[in-house]
Amino acid sequence: MNPEKLAKLQANANRSKGAPRRVVKKVHRPVAQDDRKLQGALEKLALVAQPYVEEVNMFLEEGTVLHFRQPKVHVSAASNTYAIYGRGEEKELTELVPGILNQLGPDSLASLRKLAESYQQSAAGQAALAAEGDDEVPDLVESFEEASIEETKETTA
Predict the structure, then answer these.
(1) What pTM was computed for the model?
(2) 52: domain CATH number?
(3) How far, in whole angstroms, is CA 91 from its chain's centroid?
(4) What is the CB neighbour count within 10 angstroms for residue 85?
(5) Average pLDDT for consecutive 10-residue bins of the chain (157 residues)?
């Protein structure tokens, strides 16, 4: 056995003499334990689970929507308290427009109008740029072969 390796192993040993070598196992706690803590907190608030909720949309002031697909919803009607948890995605209002028109309130309708106006202005600006520029291909005035021959003459001279 190599004495250098042996000395290195002895220096790295974190155990007392005579103690067996043991591999330390890391115990991973299941997610269910966190879920139990959450359920306990919800029970303290007297929240009741509401099944069959397909989606939840929260409209933010920036014009974006926090969208939950198939969330878990708990409600306490007496205290006007809602607990919504699940995987949420932040989306633009335009991505969800056809399906959420019936969910929009007066504030959201105003932001939707502003969004539509800005979209119309940008579309009008693009149309003006398209009208200014010629879409036709310009006629070929010179031949490319003659231009390349002239370039080669200039570089050799």
Answers:
(1) 0.47
(2) 2.20.70.30
(3) 8
(4) 14
(5) 80 66 73 75 87 86 83 89 88 75 68 72 66 63 71 74
